[in-house]
Design brief:
It holds the Pfam family BPD_transp_1. Helices cover about 80% and strands about 0% of the residues. The protein has about 280 residues and is mostly helical. The mean pLDDT is about 90.
Length: about 280
């Protein structure tokens, strides 16, 4: 019997390190005991308790809305920033613009959250807005740092686009806006989708910045989970984490399935063209 190589052992160890805690969490989400580390029998009571907890459900709905709108706005702003950085090669202040766009990538979240909090406080004192911190201020804060990630992703894709295709369309009389939407946009669509998913995940997972800029009327899911964990880990958190893992796994599987299906159709079409 052939012994596994060192690389195989390290791969197995890495996978166990990543996924074994998740498997334990899913297993203990069906524990009937209130103690999360003591097994007392199989039960689904904590899923029922989870759906009865209006605070957690409200936090989930708030986080999903903030993440959706933040990711959407971040894609718009990040795409414009990436387009300026890659297509406008010579203008005064390009280095400063690139530095400011990418600064949130390396800026500690504590500093970002504190600076945005001070900004909102001074704006409220000067112009009276925002009167209260809540979903809008969290949305603005998340859009601010998510736009930097989207800009980097989209800019890397724009640098690989063949400019001769766009130049040919412009030479044939296509307006620049029409050229962008009909030629450039379909080419960078995968990068836009990747940037949107990345921004959505970052917004949904953020705790530090949201804690600074949120108010008493808006609590995101990470804030509720963190506050409940400080009081003691509840089995409902295990049930919630299990549902999140299930949703992410299902979304990943569907994305893989449709991408593979599209790739198979493309290969069949190319094979038919070669045969014809």
């Amino acid at each position: 019997m052939k012994k596994p190589s060192f690389t195989t052992l390290m791969l197995i160890a890495g996978l166990l390190f990543l996924y074994l805690p998740m498997a334990i969490l899913v297993f203990y989400s069906f524990n009937s005991s209130r103690l999360v580390t003591v097994w007392a029998g199989f039960s689904g009571r904590w899923y029922i308790e989870l759906f009865r907890d209006r605070q957690i459900l409200a936090a989930v709905w708030t986080s999903l809305r903030i993440a959706f709108f933040s990711a959407t706005m971040a894609v718009c702003l990040g795409t414009m920033a990436a387009f300026v950085m890659t297509r406008f090669t010579r203008f005064r202040g390009k280095t400063a613009l690139s530095s400011m766009v990418t600064a949130p990538l390396v800026m500690p979240e504590v500093i970002t959250g504190l600076s945005l909090l001070l900004l909102f406080v001074h704006m409220a004192q000067m112009i009276g807005w925002p009167a209260d911190r809540g979903m809008v201020t969290i949305w603005i804060a998340h859009t601010t740092f998510c736009s930097a990630y989207v800009a980097v992703v989209v800019a890397s894709r724009l640098r690989e686009v063949d400019l001769s295709i766009e130049e040919a369309a412009l030479d044939l009389g296509s307006p620049p806006v029409k050229t962008f939407f009909q030629i450039t946009l379909p080419v960078i669509a995968p990068a836009l989708a990747a940037g949107w998913l990345l921004a959505f995940t970052l917004s949904l997972d953020d705790l530090v910045i949201a804690s600074f800029v949120s108010g008493p009327g808006a609590s995101t899911l990470p804030m509720v989970v963190f506050s409940s964990v400080r009081m003691g880990v509840s089995p409902k958190i295990n049930a919630l984490a299990t549902l999140i893992i299930l949703a992410v796994s299902l979304a990943t599987f569907l994305a893989w399935y449709f991408m593979r299906r599209s790739e198979n159709k493309r290969r069949i079409a190319m094979a038919q063209q070669d045969a014809g």
